[in-house]
Specification:
Oligomer: single chain
Bound molecules: iron/sulfur cluster
Number of domains: 2
CATH superfamily of the largest domain: Hypothetical protein, domain 2
CATH topology of the largest domain: Endonuclease III, domain 1
Radius of gyration: 25 Å
CATH architecture of the largest domain: Orthogonal Bundle
Largest sheet: 4 strands, mixed
Number of strands: 7
Helix content: 25-40%
Length: 373
């Protein structure tokens, strides 16, 4: 028979006691151990909301180490939100290459436009108004409100979830436990120095309460942490096993001409990888393709005497909702490519000048590794 939950099981009864201590312990720790990050204001300095917003959008998909050079490049090219708003979208997309989904870069540009033209170049200070801007969701609005403006908001990312799950030994697995972890985190947020507190928890999760091998000996929360006491830290947070992703297949065409240029085109603006450059391909579907069947999607009716050659190996890429496997075929354009909107011939050496998503870069890498011409 299931045991009745004791009042301590969800952490709520101990929250007020822990909250008072946790906040002060974490802030004292942060004053000594804070990470120096290019977008972070030095101690005692006022944060720049543009820097906070830009870094938080970039950090949505990738790590602090990766974001560093991109952040530096963006603020060098576009020192203010108004400069970014005035930039060509293509330049922004190109500068974004390697940072993940381009929809985010498009929203970044759109958001900069709204802030520059409708808000006098100043970001709104409260979470609700921030959330009304393109590309800013729950986490990012809370992070900007707290870090840039010192509001009592609580940004909760994977790092903070992990710290909360351990501090209160929450056994319920993610993602079901998210609301509880969020409310526990909110209950710990102090009225003063909310921005420092948010950054302190991020730093703590990234450097001390790491997913594997947390350094509990160095942790300011050690004396309060229930998972530490119970010896369960390494097993938390628990996770519901992920279902296997559906698989999709496609055939991509690496088509070159006599000058050694390769045929590329721009994807439609709407939808997955919208507006990015690509090598033409069949639709991506649940069944595998026969190459003959795929040929009707090829950009040329006549790929030379040798026909389409299947390149050894394949390109695999994991999207959020499916896993993709692409067979790549190569051919030389003998009689001219089909007319396609947004298509151009590009020297292989010039591919880096275009905004390709990672999956397309993998195709180029495969073809180049085989020295296909
Ligand atoms: Fe994480 Fe250990 Fe600190 Fe608990 S004591 S919050 S498990 S690092």
């Amino acid at each position: 028979m299931a045991r009745n939950a004791s009042p301590t099981d969800d952490g709520t009864d101990v929250l007020p006691r822990i909250a008072r201590k946790a906040a002060s312990h974490v802030l004292v720790w942060y004053d000594v151990n804070r990470r120096v990050l290019p977008w972070r204001a030095a101690s005692g300095e006022k944060p720049d909301p543009y820097h906070v917003w830009l870094s938080e959008i970039m950090l949505q998909q990738t790590t602090v180490a990766t974001v560093g050079p991109y952040f530096a490049d963006f603020v060098r090219r576009w020192p203010t939100v108004s400069d970014l708003a005035a930039a060509e979208l293509d330049d922004v997309l190109h500068a974004w290459q390697g940072l993940g989904y381009y929809a985010r870069a498009r929203n970044l540009h759109k958001c900069a436009g709204i802030v520059a033209s409708q808000m006098g170049g100043r970001f709104p200070e409260d979470e609700k108004a921030l959330k009304g801007l393109p590309g800013i969701g729950d986490y990012t609005s809370a992070a900007i409100a707290a870090i840039a403006f010192g509001k009592g908001a609580t940004p909760v990312d994977g790092n903070v979830e992990r710290v909360m799950a351990r501090l209160f030994a929450v056994k319920e697995p993610l993602p079901g436990s998210k609301p509880r972890l969020r409310s526990l985190a909110a209950g710990l947020t102090p009225a003063k120095r909310a921005g420092d507190y948010a950054q302190a928890l991020m730093d703590l999760g990234a450097t001390v309460c790491r997913p594997r091998n947390p350094s509990c000996d160095l942790c300011p929360l050690e004396g309060l942490c229930r998972a530490r006491r119970e010896g369960t830290a390494a097993r938390l947070p628990a996770r519901t096993p992920r279902k296997p992703q559906p698989k999709r297949y496609g055939v991509a065409f690496w088509m070159t001409n006599d000058d050694g240029a390769v045929f590329i085109r721009r994807r439609e603006e709407k939808g997955l990888l919208g507006g990015m450059m690509e090598f033409p391909s069949t639709p991506w579907r649940a069944e595998e393709w026969m190459v003959d069947e795929a040929a009707s999607y090829a950009p040329t009716p006549d790929p030379g005497k040798s026909g389409w050659r299947i390149l050894p190996g394949s390109v695999r890429h994991v999207f959020t909702h499916f896993d993709l496997e692409l067979q790549v075929v190569a051919g030389v354009c003998a009689k001219g490519a089909k007319r396609m909107d947004g298509a151009v011939w590009c020297p292989v050496s010039g591919l880096g000048d275009h905004a390709f998503p990672t999956v397309m870069k993998k195709i180029a890498a495969l073809a180049k590794s085989l020295e296909v011409d």
